[in-house]
Amino acid sequence: MEHTTLEGKTALITGGVRRIGAAIAHILHDAGMNLALHYRSSVADAERLRDELNQRRSESVILLQGNLLDTSRLPALVEQAANRWQRLDLLVNNASSFYPTPVSTATEAQWDELMGSNLKAPFFLSQAAATHLRAVCGSIINIVDIHAERPMSKHTLYCAAKAGLVMLTKSLARELGPEIRVNGIAPGAILWPEAGVSETLQSYILSRVALRRLGQPEHIARTLLFLVRDGGYITGQIIAVDGGRSLSM
After folding, report:
1. Do 49 and 29 touch, CB atoms closer than 8 A?
2. Which of 47, 121, 161, 223 is most deeply packed, by most CB within 10 A?
């Protein structure tokens, strides 16, 4: 079976210091990768994770702060990541805004933020990273959502943005191949939203998950590791990691 070593390679992870992003950072670092971890405002979490990983392997992690909605700054973000270790092997588009936008009250500002973080930024980061990734036959992994295919009530803008990211993943795979592989991972019930979910809604959601339990960020991280390290003949695909939730939506 094809198995690519990740020792000494470099990954840029957006939203890489908390929740799913932090789990991805841990597993890629354990596999030997150097990491450029982007964050927007979670300074304490970013510094804590950087220090923890650098204690394990010195000079292996840097932090990149930035607002992904500022499109003009995205090329510089990529260059910082690539220049630190003179290569870029993996771009993980993980950063995402998420909140309800009922049609009756949704605003243009919400449209811009949700489309910007979930769709526009991944495109322009991929555009900026393409030259570096092509040089090393690298990969792009987009973190999508099972609700990109089956809309969630009162989240029209978020679902539309993630649906766009699904098509972006497939389109990039076709255009950037054969040198660059592009895939997506669609999480299901992995972490409850930070704004909170009632116990009644939690029970209802889990009742519709075939495995009847909440997933863990590590399930997403291990799937990503497989795609990057072992999935050398996989591109343009979206892998649902949802415990079977999409079977009953």
Report:
1. no
2. 161
Instruction: Give yes or no: 158 in active site.
Output: yes
Contacts of 112 (CB under 8 A, 6+ apart): 69
CA distance linking residue 196 with residue 118, whole number of Å: 21
Domain ranges within the chain, ordered by starting residue: 10-247
pLDDT tens digit sequence for 56-110: 999 999 999 999 999 999 999 999 999 999 999 999 999 999 999 999 999 999 9
User: Which residues in 108-248 belong to E strands, given as ranges?
Assistant: 139-143, 181-187, 238-241
CATH number for the domain whose boundaries are 10-247: 3.40.50.720
Tokens of residue 49, six digits:
């994770």
pTM of the model: 0.96
Cβ neighbours, 10 Å, residue 32 = 14
Read off the pLDDT of residues 100-155 as tens digits, 9 standing for 90 and up: 999 999 999 999 999 999 999 999 999 999 999 999 999 999 999 999 998 999 99
* Helices 156-176 + 121-136 axis angle, to 10: 20
237 three-state secondary structure: coil
Q: Number of H helices and number of E strands within the chain?
A: 8, 7
Instruction: Take residue 20 and report the two structure tokens written for it.
Output: 């799913």
Among the listed residues 39, 158, 204, 233, the single catalytic one is: 158
